Amino acid sequence: MEEGKDGAESQIFHETIKKELEKLNNASEEINSSAAVLKELKMAYLFSLKDLSRMIGKRQQEYGTSVEEAKPYFKAKMATEELYDKKHAVADELLKAMLWLESAREVEKQTEEEIYEGKVFHEEAQRRLNKVTIEVNKACDYKSLKDAEHLSYVYRCKEAEEKLSKLKMALRKPVEMASPYYNALDEVDSILDNLRSEIEDTVIKGKWAKLVYETSFKKLELISEMIHNQRSLVQNYQKPHTLINFNSDIPLYATTDDISFYCRKPKLAEASIKWNSL
């Protein structure tokens, strides 16, 4: 019976090593792959930045003083677009706030109906109603906040549009002449933004792979430590052991509370605690 238990634990033990080694190898491949891709992306970004900067410089010379003269208009246009982006984001948050409030009020209504169900007062329902009422108040306050924020952006966008319209009328000729330059500049910004986004994604993948690698490596180190401690225990107790198994007294998935029972074997207990903390 004891040998069967040791054999089962040995099987789990070897499967765990195999699983962690597989994770370690996959993470190592991902780290190397991410590093190679990151190097290529950085080179592409630098070459693109150089070529596009040269192209923009030529365009600026081509359109002359109209580029500088039209600059206030295009800066105002960019600021207006950013305001609209923020307004749309706040509108999404306002919609979520409305759904939250609607859901909370529906739960409140249902709870109120339960309070005098069958003309018998339910204390548990009253306690739930108190909690739901607090939730309704929170949702209401949040909706009011988002309402005010959204209204603020509506007015700011309106003011920005009026300012932009006046600038376009005042700088009509240089704006028309410099439009191709600023359109090209927008395309350049879009290309560089896409490259930066790819670089950031690759960096994140590499960091995640490193984390997986370090975690698996740490687990394998702890397994090695447990093997060493078990061998020491076998020698100390002079018990014949042909296979490297976990000590039958301490299972693979022992908790910290379980370990306290086996304090007579402190080294193995310490390793088991570290293992379960991962």
What distance separates the N and C termini?
A: 30 Å
Total number of beta strands: 0
User: Beta-strand percentage?
Assistant: under 5%
Helix percent band: over 70%
Total DSSP helices: 7
Structure explained in plain terms:
- The chain has 7 helices and no strands.
- With 278 residues, it is mainly alpha-helical.
- It folds into 2 domains: 115 residues, no CATH class; 100 residues, Four Helix Bundle (Hemerythrin (Met), subunit A) (Up-down Bundle), CATH 1.20.120.
Question: Could you give a quick summary of the protein structure above?
Answer:
87% of the residues lie in helices and 0% in strands. The chain has 278 residues and is mainly alpha-helical. Residues 238-278 have low confidence and may be disordered.
How is the secondary structure organized here?
Blueprint: H1 2-63, H2 66-69, H3 71-115, H4 123-170, H5 172-237, H6 256-259, H7 266-277
Helix pairs in contact: 1-5, 3-4, 5-7
Key structural traits:
disordered C terminus; 2 domains; 278 residues; mainly alpha; single chain; 7 helices
